[in-house]
Records
---
Amino acid sequence: IILHTSFRTDINITCLNKLSLRNVAMSSSSQTQIIEHVVLFKVKDDVDSGKIDAMVNDLKGLVTLDEVLYLSAGPIHRLRSKSAFTHVLHSRYRSKEDLSAYVAHPAHVRVVDEYIPIWEDIVALDWIADQVPNTLAPPPGSVAKITLLKVKENVSDEARTKIMEVIKEKSPGIDQITVGENFTPVRANGFSVGSVAYFKDLGEMETHKDLDKEKVGEYLDDIIVVELVVPSSSSAA
């Protein structure tokens, strides 16, 4: 897959998503792989709240597009990062081709043109999930915990394998978790490993421990952890 390197094109890949009732009902039995797509936005401090609400609604409004299996977008519930990101988007696709197919879609271009001026920063990662979740579309009220890792340069393959194993350590309450290595470095800002874990609710999530830095911290330059409560509009087209 060849991706253009312009800021606008990368935002196109970042934002274009769709969820249909047909896809909500789809289970992992019909999928051989899943592409996870995560985008963190930092909205400028001086942006009017009405404009921010419109941005979120317009991102959600792209659910009418076809191949996306799942989408959730909204304000970050809780952030652990040196960067002050404000919003997050998570979507799922059948393939890299499906993800890239939306780059030039007119509906997506319209949203990009409208909201690029209010985005101060973006980090975007795409990865092939190490496993296909049993439920592709977590229900409203679920909580996503998204972890992005900036792995140090020249880390050995053995260390990378250890990082993946530590991320996948499953705690009670996790409905699903996937992990993988980013294949779209243009807007990743050096982050190379991503993980998404879904919990039934905030209470279940509070019992989950963050990545064990004692085991893999020596291999990492940075970690971002964000939490997103799945809004009701994520579960229907």
---
Amino acid sequence: MTQNNTLIRRYIIVGERRFSNYWWAIVIFLGSCGFLATGLGSYFGGQDFTQTVDTPQGLLMSFYGCLGFLLSIYWSLLIFWNVGGGFNEFNKKDGFVRIFRWGYPGKNRKIDLSYSLKDIEAIRVLLNDNNLNLGQRTIYLCLKGKREIPLTGIGQPLTLKEIEKQASELANFLQVSLEA
């Protein structure tokens, strides 16, 4: 929570600009450069420091290098665009909830949802600790008409203590029930 006012609360959602994404984009880029250098060196008969003797092996190394290079460019663009980043704003002063996220470039790049505080029925917490997705912990904003909007970001799961604290503070602030 970045703004702790008695009437306005704003929670920042990180999106793609996390340390792990920077790390993997750099590692994949460096690895792809190594694959490209090895493959092209083998293919063109330059200094062969990896002992690749076959032309097909050099082509395959170049192919993997190109794929890694394209993946690192894509990952870097996601970081630059900050896909998934944004904020959740709860404004008692003006009586609305605003959920803002950045998406992929295009006409729907900005996802900006606003709802009246009167439409909020509850805050729901989903705790799903199975081995397949290593635990899904999400806070949902429950609106009239059975609509549920996720409020937590993807990629950096909160601890059980953090998610319970954030959900209970939000339910108390909005004066709605907290469901599990």
---
Amino acid sequence: MMRALCMRLAHLGLPAHCVGDVTAPPAAGGDLLVASAGPGSFSTVDAICGVARGAGARVLLLTARPDGGDFPRRQADVVAHLPAQTMADDEEEEEMAETPERSSPRAKLPMGSLYEGAMFVLFEMVVLELARVLGQSPAQMRARHTNLE
């Protein structure tokens, strides 16, 4: 979903890069890192947020569990709560189902699919608003879409 957001930002004419891409420039002051840690914390996301902050970039952390990890919240300028099931919720419900006095879990999408779907919808809504604010038409966005597919 983060890659999909980067693609849409590029369609808007904004400089956007995905962490790990060989063409991504170093993070610096004036940059914004949009990071996602559905369960609240991952060691890789924690480290990336720390590097970005150390380089002077601002950090926006998306998570389904805003109380689920101290380190990324300390590294983030803004924590956005996206309430949706993550892989961690899936694991907890499996553990609860193993306890006889607990009722069985509700049927849901597997692992983090619901969180990822919620991110996609959120990102598309953000892109629509950015297009309006930036005065970008669908035709202008299409003109920036690759022709190599």
